Amino acid sequence: MRITTVLSAVLLALGPAAAPAAADSSPSPSASDGSSAPTSAGTSFRTATEIEQGQQATASGSTGDYLYWSFPADAGQRPTVKATVKLPDTHAGQTWQIDVYDGLRRRQACQYGAQTRTAAQGTAAVDLACTLRTVRAWSEPWADDPLPGTYYIRLTVLNLTTADLGQPVHASVRADSKDIGGSAAVDGSLAKPLVPGIAVASKSEEGDGGSSKAAVLSSIEPTDGWASGWWSDRWVWTAIGGVLAALAGVGGYALTRGSGRPSRVPPGA
Amino acid sequence: MCALLAALASGIAFPAAATAGEPTGEATAKVDLVLDVSGSMRTRDIDGGTRMAAAKQAFNEVLDATPAEVQLGIRTLGANYPGNDRQTGCKDTAQLYPVSALDRTGAKTAVATLSPTGWTPIGPALLKAAGDLRGGEGSKRIVLITDGEDTCAPLDPCEVAREIAARGIGMTIDTLGLVPDTKLNKQLSCIAEATGGTYTSVEHTGELTDKVNQLVDRAADPVVTPVATEGTAQCTDAPALKSGLYTDREESGQQRFYRVDVKPGQELRSSVSVAADRAVNPDYGVLLRAVTTQGREIVRGEATGNGRTDVISTGLRYPKAESDSDDAPPEGVPPAETVCLQVTNSFSAASGVKTTPGLPLELTVDVVSSPSHSGDVASFGLGRGWWLLGVLVLVGFLAGLIWGWLSRWRVAVWRTN
């Protein structure tokens, strides 16, 4: 009886300590609307402008351009990409589209959001959005699930009249993500995030002590680094489950013993 | 636990891949501004001044803003021959300022001397401009500023652009049109698309300055220069690639093979983009397969598309498991597996469009340390949610109950004995 009392006391003390961590385990991306937001866009995967999540990147381009940005997304995040294109004063009907590609340049499906939208003649702006699937820490090589790493955004017009070619447009994009948390925590992890050129980059880092402005395909990294992949709120759930089970066990045990000391036992025995 | 170990290991183990495609330090960006000085530049329709005046003003501002790391040159077309002889007029292109470290005053003086004169030989000017930019490792950009379409017909500037792109690595042509005209739009955007550049129609001096500045700045951004390679029709004689970025050309219906060595415990990551640098039919696709030397497919990446596009791309991952200790050779260096990467595309050129040179193909190869494989669907096999708590509480309660009864029964049995 002594032992179970002590045990339950310890578990009770541990319980509340573990509980607050359950609220939100992984850090959500910090929205940093800094002044350093990029004001240009790349024109290919190779030249894509790197942006942070939560940054409002802008770019001026021409109708018909293919504008590229890239942003990092980590396991457990469900990124949403939003784009607004300000169109010239006069134009015919145009269809705009955003596509999101992962670090292997595989097109990623949008769960929802207006990925493609047609701007009627003379419309001032068009808004696009794309919500990706939740980024998993690991998936089989034969699947095309979103994995941690670089994500490319491509913004372009799909159909336009020849007269509209080359007209100035102004685009702004922003990538945010919702933290899905432990429900998306899968087992396994990538040894390196899906960042293109990472094999070359780490090699040169090793070699010549980081020679200042060497170009890399993608030098992207979340502000607080890539998640190591071992933490999820599943630890907390499971631990609390263990504590509750132990308490329930103590309760069940106590039920069978009745209440108080047996009447036969004399006091002070 | 496996994942944790893998995470730790990844910090230490760097891939032993070599460094093809690694940029060299002294790559300087080169930009050649190609300015149309044909007779039509005299027309007064940009902000009340002539097109020439607008171009000159824009050039002055651009020269002031050019970053120091960019080598800038200026080439003119139609600046010298005022006559009517088409033969001579169509050869009229000259280097006004050589592509070199910029002397701002010298360049400005040279620009000031220009006056609108002759024909519009865009094709020949582009060829010469490509020659101006020859050599060096950095990115190369031609910025073509013109107010009229090419007047030297049989040589299609679009095809010239395509050939330039096929010849030089990382050469981009951006075009700026000074007149909102459908035919000019078409030709200039065709030139731009042939090299992955952009086309902008300009109607104000300010726009012109901003755009040229933007393009020069874009050239100054360091980018990885791809390494030219040539894939083969079979895997046996395919070029062996290490981690890096490569380009090649592939005609529709061709297949290209490349070989990559992957050691046990490494992961091959590869992606391929095939660019549509000419008018293509609206349905297309690309297939990247990793096959063994015996021809068995390991994994594939495929993509199809429809409609207007610049590239179609796909990728694959192939983690090679650590070899079992039993069959590892005694010297301790497990042999690398040769993986053949096969690229095919299903682009079809629109009718009347030449199919050679092939479409530009960009291939990235990364060989990194391999991930742990997953032992469970959930992270470390841990549970989550109210059902889990409910089950645990129930089982705990029942276990307590049974334990209690058992011990009562045991005590009772002991007492009676």
TrEMBL record, chain A:
Keywords: Signal
Signal peptide: 1-21
Protein name (database record): Secreted protein
Region described as Disordered: 20-44
